[in-house]
Amino acid sequence: MTRWAMVIDLDKCVACQGCSIACRFENNTPVVKPNEALKGRAIRWNDVFPFPTNPLEADPGEYPETKQRYLTRPCMHCDNPPCIKVCPVQATFRDDEGLVRQNYARCIGCRFCTVACPYGVRYFNWAAPEWEGSLAEHLNPDRIEGPGDLEGPAVRPKGVVEKCTFCIQRLHKARARAEAEGREFRADEYVPACVQTCTGKARYFGDLDDPESTVTLLAKSPRAFRLLEDVGTHPKVIYLREG
Amino acid sequence: MLQIDAQDKAKLIDPLFRAGIRFWVAVALLLAVIGWGGYMYVRQLIYGLSQTGMQRPAYWGVYMVNFIFFIGISHAGTLISAILRVTGAEWRRPITRVAEAITVFALVVGTLQIIFDMGRPDRVLFVFFYGRLQSPLLWDAISVTAYLLGSVTYLYLPLIPDLAILRDNCPPTAPRWRKGLYSLLSLGWRGNRTQWVRLEKAIAVLAVIIIPVAVSVHTIISWILATTVQPGWHSTIFGPYFVVGAIFSGIGALFMAMTIVRRLMRLENYITTRQYRNLGLLFIAMTAIWFYFTYAEHLTLAAGQQTAEFPVLASKLWGQFAPGFWLMVLLMGVAFWVLVIPPLLPRRAGRLVLFNPRLAVGSGVAAVILFAVMNYSRNLPLTAALSQPGIRLTGWVLVGLALLGVGLGGAFWLKDRLVTATVIAAVCVVVGMWLERWNIVVPTMTHPRLIPFWFYRPTLTEISLTAASVALFILLFLLFFKLFPAVSIWEVAEGRVIDEARSRVKIPAPTPVGAVSRPKHWGFEEGQQ
Fold first, then answer.
1. Which end of chain B, N or C, is less packed with Cβ atoms under 10 Å?
2. Structural domain span for residue B142
3. ipTM of the complex
C-alpha cells in the first residue's frame, strides 16, 4: 500500500514562497482582495510564515543580533487527522493512500474542521471566488468530479472549506497515463506542484511504505521532526531541522 | 363542559381574548427587528459569510456564542418543570408553563444560529443524509432534535386539559378559528378518570426521560469544543461546566420571563414570593457552583502555563478579552450579592449610614467617574505623590470600595424587594452567561497554535442577526401567551385542592409537658440499666 508523504528540509528552504505560488496556480486558489486579506481571509494552501508563529519564548532579537526562522506548511495529511473526526457529513476523509481529501460538493460549511485542525491548514471560502483579468483565463482545467463529488482544483463555491490535497489531480493523471500506456504506476511518477517548483530543492515526496524511497530514508534522519508532535495527529509531512 | 374558577377565568382566560394597543405595538416593533435581521441574513446569503467579522483563525464567532447561549437558556424548562415535577415540589405549579415555553422557543432560536453560521445552509439536510456518528456535531444534531421533540411534547401534554378548559370557556365573541384551534388541540379531552390517569402517567414518564436528554444536550455542546485539541477547550470539566452554566442561565431567563408575565398579566396571586424564594435558593446554589467550576477551570490553565494554553488565559485575565471576562465576574458577583446579602442584613442595620440607599447612589456615581478617569486618561494628575502603578492600584482599590458602598446601600434597599433583587440577579446572570460563552469560544479561536494571534469583532450583520434572534424569541413568547394561558390552570387548581385537603388534616397536638415522664438521657431511663 502507498502512503504518500513529504519531507521538507528546512536547511535548504530559503523561504522564497515559490511553493505557495505554484500551489496557487495548480489548485486555482481564489485571490482575495487586499482589504479581505488584511482581515485574515487570504487562502494559502501552502503557507510560509515566521516560526514560532507567536513568539512567546523564542525571541527573534534586535537587529543585527537577530535570527528569523521560517516555516513552510502544506497540509500535514495526518495519519490521525482531527479534521475528519469532527466532520459531520464526511466531506473530508482519508483515502486508502493516506491522503486527507476534501469534497466540496458535500461540505456544509460548518467550519468544525477548520476549528479542529491544530495546524490551521484548512481555509474557508468566505465569499464566492473571483479572478480578475488574465488570471481568470488561466485557471487549471483539472478537476476531480463524480456524482456528489467535487475535489482538487475545481473552482470552489462560496461557503465551503478547502485545503491542500497533495495535488491529488496529478496523482490521478499519472495513474491514468500509466494505465493508458499499459504499465504499472510507479510512485516517483507523481509529485505535487510545490515539490516540483521548490527553488532550494528542499522538498521530497514519495511513498512512506516503500523502505527504499527517499522520504522513508530521510524520515530516519536524526534531524527529522514533525510539527506539533504532542497533539497526537501523526503527520505525514516530516521536517528536517535546521542545522 | 369543564368548569373553571371565576378568578382563574378572569385572570388567565379573559386576557387571551383581549389585545390592547400595547400588544400590537410590541408585535410590530419585534417584527421590525426581525425584518431587519431577515434583510441582513439575505445579504449574508448573497455575499457569503464575508459579511461577518469571522476570518482565519476566528472561524467561529457570535453565532456560535448565541447557539450555546440559547441552548443553555432552554434548560429552564427541563430543570424547573421536569425535576420539580419528579421531586413533587408543589410550588412549581404556576411557573411550569413559562419554563416549558422558554425551552421550546430557545431551542428553536438556538438551532437557527447554526443555520446562520453555516456556509452552505442549503445543505443542512446532509447532516441527516450523510451523517457520521463519529462527529460531535452529529451527536449534537441528534440530541438537540430529541430535546426539541421531547420538550414540544412536554409543553403540549400539560396543555391539553387547559386547552379543553379554553374550548369550553371561550367567550362568545372569540373568533371561530380560535375555538376550532382549541377543540382540535385538546384532542377531545373530557377530564374523565381514564384520561387523567393516562395524562399523569405520560407526563411522569416524559419528565423522567427528558432530564438525561437535557443534560446530554449541553454536555454534547461542550464536547464540540472539548473533543478538539485546541488550547483552552481540551478540558474534561467542560461537560458539567456547560450543564451547570446552562441551568444557571435557564433559571435567570425563567426569572425574567415569569416576572414579565406576572407584571403584565397581574398574576401576583398566582406567582407569589414563594416561587421567587424557592427558586432563588436554587439560583444561589447555581451561582456558587458556577464560581467553583470557573475557578477550577482557570486555575489549572494558570498553574500549567502551557505554551499554547497560557496565551488564551492571559488574553482573558489582562489581554484583549479582559473587559469581557472581568465584567462577567462582576455581574456574577453582583447576582450572588443581591441574592444572598439582603436577607442576611438585620433590620436595625438601616440606622447605619453605611446602609443608606442614598450612599449607594453616591458610591455608584463615584465608581463610574473614577473608572472613566482611570480608563480614559493616560497619566493621572497626581504623579508627584505616588508612582504611576501606585496610582492605578489606589484607583482600583477606590473603585472597589465604591462598588462595595453600592452593594451595602443597595442590599438594604433590596431587603424588602425580593422580586426586584431577583430580577437584577437574573439580568446579571443572563448577560454574564452570554459573556461566559463568548469568553470560552472567542479567545481560543483567536489564539491558535500555528496561526498568528488575531482578534475578532462582530460586524453589523452579526449584531443584527443576534438582535433579530432575541426579538424572535420574545415574539414567539408573546404570541404563545396570547393564545394559551401563561399559568397552567389545572395544575394550579389541583394545587389548591391539595392545599385545602392538607388544611383539613388534623395534626395531633403534643401532649402537655409533664404528663409523660421524659427520659433524662437519650436512649435509657434512669434505673432501667
1. C
2. 25-227+458-494
3. 0.92
